[in-house]
Amino acid sequence: MKTITLRTLVREPLKVKRMTRTGNPVQVTDNGEPLWILHPAKGTDTDEAERRRAIDEVLDEVLREKPSKISAAKLLEESRR
Fold first, then answer.
1. CA dist 52 to 38, 46, 59, Å?
2. How far is it, in rounded angstroms, from Cα 15 to Cα 81?
3. Run of H or E residues at 52
4. How many alpha carbons fall within 13 Å on the CB side of residue 60?
5. CA atoms of 77 and 81, how far apart (whole Å)
6. What is the distance of C-alpha 12 from the center of its chain?
7. What angle do CA 69, 79, 60 make, to 5 degrees?
8. Which phi and psi angles does 27 have, rounded to 5°?
9. N or C: which end of the chain has fewer CB within 10 A?
C-alpha cells in the first residue's frame, strides 16, 4: 500500500488516480497520522470472487432460516393502523 500526504491528494489528484487505477489501495496521511485508505472502485478479480463468495454465504444463511408465519400483507396492514 502506498502512502501519500493530504497535500499531495489535494494538489496532485491525477497522481493518486494513477496509483489507484493499478488496483492498489492508497493511504492518505496528515502530519503522519493516517486519515483514509482509498480503494479503487473496480476491484481486482480476486476481490470480486471474494465478494461473490461472501454474498452467497449470506444468502445461504437466509435460505436456511424457517419462513415467517406472518404474511407481508398482514405486516403492511398492521403498520397502517
1. 21, 10, 11
2. 57
3. helix 45-64
4. 6
5. 7
6. 25
7. 40
8. -95, 130
9. C
26 grid coordinates: 492508497
C-alpha cell at 55: 454474498
**What does the chain come to in residues?**
81
Does this model's pTM top 0.85? My answer is: no
The Cα–Cα gap between 19 and 5 comes to: 13
Here the cell at position 4 is: 501519500
Q: Which residue has the higher pLDDT, 74 or 41?
A: 74
Instruction: Give the span between the Cα atoms of 11 and 28, in whole angstroms.
Output: 13
For residues 44 and 53, which has the higher predicted lDDT (pLDDT)?
53
Q: How far apart are the C-alpha atoms of 2 and 6, rounded to whole Å?
A: 13
What are the residue ranges of helices labelled H in the chain? 6-11, 13-21, 45-64, 72-80
Cβ proximity of 28 and 38 under 8 Å: yes
